[in-house]
Amino acid sequence: MSPSRASLGLGSPELHRLLAELSVETKVKLLTGQDFWTTSPVESIGLCRMVLSDGPSGVRGEVWDERSPSLNLPSATALSSSWDTELAYRYGAVLAAEARHKGVDVVLGPTINLHRSPLGGRHFEAFSEDPVLTADLAAAFVRGLQDHGVAATPKHYVANDYETERFTVSTEVSERALRELSSPSRRPWSRPAPGSSCPRTTPSTA
Description:
Helix content: 25-40%
Distance between the termini: 29 Å
Strand order of the largest sheet: 1-2-3
Number of helices: 7
Oligomer: single chain
């Protein structure tokens, strides 16, 4: 997308004019994606494709073999042991540089699920069992990414306590635990990622 169009706000008349040019079929195509990791481009209005990639502790990119090795950062759990939001910001900035090198527009991270059980198979991706520490570090992580023009997607919000059979298992959590523990770690981070030729916005975690 051209620089002038990349800065269009949601209320922009120009944006609404461009949307009006799209058929229902094209709009649905934008929702479904081009493949597992990319969105569909719409050349008629200057909309480029966006590349998404896993990235809590590194950026995988589109090529998953020895041709394009990825930087492997310390796990989020190791990062949280520092209690250092400035370090978390730098962590996000490093991921942004890696993402730009690999042509990635949106990093699927950070993971903001809480450590509720030592059996959680993906807890290495998440920060801690503490909701406030998790929220503060995740917010700094997101700023580090987005201040350098790469969108962040906070994920695995709550009660993602198992990797085995994770698509079918039922996690039972009391309403009090959800409100007192999980809600503070789910602060919304929704703003455009600056410095990009493609418009990138971070989905809210609310």
